[in-house]
Specification:
By secondary structure, this protein is α/β, with parallel strands linked by helices. The chain is built from 9 helices and 8 strands. Helix 3 crosses helix 8.
Amino acid sequence: MTGYTQPEALVETDWLESHLSDPHLRLLEIDIDPDACSGQHLPGAIFWSILKDLSHPDMRIKLEPSIVANLLSQSGITPQTMVVAYGSNIGVSAVIFWFLKLFGHDNVRVLNGGHQKWIAEGRPTTDSLGKASPTSYPVGLPNPALRITYPAVQASLGQSQQVLLDVRTQQEYNGEHFLFKPPEGSERAGHIPGAIHLDYVQMLNEDGTFKSAEALRMLLTQHGITPDKTVIPYCAIGGRSAFVWFVLTYLLGYPNVQNYDGSWNEWSRLPDAPIV
């Protein structure tokens, strides 16, 4: 992890295995459903569903303090708890890092390599998920510095010091793939005008770990994503863009990164939002 601006934002598999019994640590498994990890859960992990626990039916991320407070409390998390997030895809664990930081929970880490690396190394798993004793966790309003809303994104169009970064697949960027295509939904195809495309998976090694700081900086610089600019990542529903926010902010130290969590789910449905 040498070279990362804040390497403490990551934990490695060997460290986590030696701390599984730590009463001040809460392990969160993040995925669409509990079957994503095929019954090979990390011991003691509490499960959060991206769709049910973190998203409204229209796929907007839940930002209501009362909902977040209940989720944290029911998961046995206190303001002092160290939360370590993992999933079948490391991108989803970085979503939780952004989500918890958004609501002021600073003691959160991402498992480097996630479930993929843990299983490949033959580390302990279990068929059952963990249980937690409820706590009381007061939650305030989300930190506006960590996200950006539609009006501000629209105002950024054409601004040389603000870069829109589309981190979806090439097919999504080209308008060849939909999350909810018509007639099932009202999503339009394409991308935000002027957005640079960089699929978030290019930031990962084959084993699911993050690329080195040097490799990440080279990749981003090649795409014109430099620290002197305000970077606004977006994706389909704000998850992959939260992953890129984590990489740029915590691994590379970019000073001005704001996650557009409304992302394409919102932009594509607004009649006045320009699309190419």
